[in-house]
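Researcher: Let's do a round of design. I'm pasting the structure tokens now; please hold your answer until I've finished.
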């Protein structure tokens, strides 16, 4: 998470907004059968990786490029 926030500061801001929204809507508590706030953040990162050009890179693919 920290690496993604360092790549693009907007990730942090969006993450805080999503966590706030999840809390307001009371949909971020695993005990009540909803997803955790961490799961919502993971979905945000995945969403930002799907744009073309992507907002965020897939870190595993970046690492594999450097390993070769």
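Researcher: That's everything. Go ahead.
Model: Designed sequence:
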């Amino acid at each position: 998470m920290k690496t993604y926030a360092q790549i693009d500061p907007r990730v942090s801001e969006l993450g805080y907004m999503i966590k706030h929204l999840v809390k307001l809507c009371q949909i971020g508590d695993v005990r009540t059968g909803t997803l955790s706030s961490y799961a919502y953040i993971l979905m945000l990162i995945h969403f930002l990786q799907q744009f073309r050009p992507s907002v965020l890179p897939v870190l595993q693919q970046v690492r594999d490029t450097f390993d070769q």
